[in-house]
Amino acid sequence: MKGLSPTVAIIAAFIAIIVPVLVAVASRKWKLVKTSEDYLVAGRRAHWALVTASVTSMYIWGSSVMGSAEGAVNNGISGVWIYPMYAVGLWVFGIWASKLREVFPYALSYTEYFRHRFNSSLHLLVIIFAIATSFSGAWIQGLAAGHVMVGLTGGQVPYWVGVAFLGVAVLIFTVVAGLWGSLISTWIFTLIAMPICAIVGVATWVALGGPTPIMETAQQLFQGGKMAPELFEIFRPSALINYLIPVLAWALFSLPMQQDYWQTAFAIRDPKSVGRAFRHAGNWWFFMPFISATLGFAALVLMKSGKMPDVPGSQAYASLVGMYLPTWTGVLFIWLVMAATVGSVGAAVVAIANIIGSDIYRAYINKSATDDQVKKLVRIMVVIVTLGVIAVALTPMSILMVLLFMPMYTAPFVFGFVASQYWKWISAWPIFVGGLVGFGVGTYMFLGMGLWGWAMIAAFVSAAIITLVGSAAAKDNFDFSILKSYKG
Amino acid sequence: MGATTALLWIAIVSSTVVLIAYEIWNAIVVSKDFAKMAREARKED
Predict the structure, then answer these.
(1) Can you give the pTM of this predicted structure?
(2) Residues A203 and A297 reside in one and the same domain
(3) Maximum CA pair distance of chain A?
């Protein structure tokens, strides 16, 4: 893995760009984009299984592979549960997505819901947080693309090259085909990434001789007192409490406020299949981190026995692969990272352009805008946002803080958003006030106290209490037929 | 230790089988849908 030739790395990244080019050509040939609705929500003509693959791709981040191994290095065998449990977010999102398609069938963005269900003040507040969330997600992927290219070539390829390849790939398919481009590209990349995850993981286990020799070494370490018995517990309580609660909080409090996921839900042809698409994405995702997580346990045993040098948990998987697999495996990693980053960034820039086009331009700036004007504007916005992502990602920095802070934007609004689809008495100002208070409480706990998992929960709970109490005191009486009849 | 070894085997084998099975299923279902869309696009021409 270390010292992959710069020429090979650049050729591998260049080949990855061929996929978006082919997607752009196919979408023009099949005339997929005629209207702004085609561009923003794939004309609501996407097969649910296409959305399943696309959502799975958006969920595969660099941290999914490296972080899942880290969980087992730090917690023993119980650590294998940490990353797969993010799937709960997708399973639950399927329920909420089905509900919103039912109450607001012609939505282009989830933020539009706040304008028609509540008022423009809350709408504009949510827009700010929604854009910040999607931009942060794209920024993280930009950073990851730069870091991986440097890491795989031992620093021989400069950081900016990875970021530039990502930006070019995203621009190609998003400008031409919008969400169709994102859906098809991420589908292809998922079909590439999943076998790579399996092949690299299984090949590493084969090189180790399978679990039996690893467990024989673990037995000797256990008998010699070098491995504590709790490292072998599959349901170790302390690991489950410390890690699973923040993981579930992230999954439940972040996804419902991300336009990247909502636009795929709005794109599905049959509204009754929306839940099914996300359930299957959750199932598919659930099984992805297990292989790398089990290798994290193998790395723990090898490090304890002195057969592998001590490395931080986040580097354990890459180190193991580097020790046991040939150098060319790095090419597969470039493809895996391109698959993860290109899909997620493409979805994020289309999401931001959608919010600006549908929620700001058409709603406030030019209410009589023609479809061609909207389509032209969102294409320009896709270019500007992508260039913005490249610009901020060109400064190499830690991705951890950006990643962990993201749910602070979203957690305070989740309760009001979801509850107001079921209860007509939930009113606007408590969500507005609760959102700001929740954001303040969460930010203080995150930055001032360093409690990132609990900060999300506190942001959610404080906002939910204000929303419930405030709405009970000043009840709304919303007529949901307004949303059902709205057609843009 | 025997139980942990078995769990590792189950995790590796079941994950690999499910990932590949989903891959094949999804590729077939979505490809068929794209083929249908391509046919419809040709008809429009």
Answers:
(1) 0.89
(2) yes
(3) 77
